[in-house]
Amino acid sequence: MGMRFMQPVQPPRYAPARDLPPYSYVPGHDWPHPVNDPGGHLCAAQDQAHAPPIAPGVLETLPTEPPARRLALAAMLAANSRWRYAVDLFNGGWYWEAHEAWESFWNALGRTTSEAQLVQGLIHLAAACVKVREGKPNGVARHTRRARELLGELTAARPGDALGLAPESVTAVVAELENYTPACWHTSRTPVVRVLAGSVRLAG
Asked: Residue 37 in contact with residue 125, Cβ under 8 Å?
């Protein structure tokens, strides 16, 4: 059964104080590039967007023993408004924007660390959803496969392994994208479209 586009009935918000963008960017469609186009919805906020999402030096204060470090990092991210906003973006159908938001955390976490690897998996999930909206099934499959590799078996995750996200929610999103079947969809004139029935949730 293929996925269907859903108008953005917004799931529960994790960062309700922050406004959601007026549109979700899809390459090759009608809406301006959020950053490169003067009319883009992120163009005027680049200084804030480039600020580290995690304050310098904070990671060095976390425990060094892996399980304790994972738990501390998960708690820190759960309290981070930019992390919570990235989850809101993804769940509401702002996939390109969620990709950008998570990329800042991937950079902050060192790109090659185990924590950064999980964030990279989320980035690939967002990219897969963009490819759905572009109508590129090969891209959907490629990004979903890479997300599965990076995220691993979250169903057996220990507390903190999913960086404060509910593992079953992430696994359900991966499975939904793996079951994607191509359809003729065109969303260039629709500001925001969700392509997933499921959503990523914070744990607890």
From this structure: no
Give the position of tokens 């702002």.
94
47-94 pLDDT per residue, tens: 455 678 988 889 999 999 988 998 999 999 999 999 999 999 999 999
pTM, full prediction: 0.90
Residues linked to residue 194 through DSSP beta bridges, in sequence order? 6
CB-count burial class (<10 Å; 0-12, 13-18, 19+) for 116? middle
Considering Cα of 115, then 120, then 121, then 122, what sign does the dihedral take? positive
Q: Cβ(120)–Cβ(155) under 8 Å? A: no
Nearest to 109 by CA among 80, 142, 143, 149: 80
Q: 55 is written with which tokens?
A: 């304050």
pLDDT, one tens digit per residue, over 155-179 is 556 767 789 999 999 999 999 999 9
Domains in the chain, CATH or no CATH each = 1-53+68-204 (1.10.3450.10)
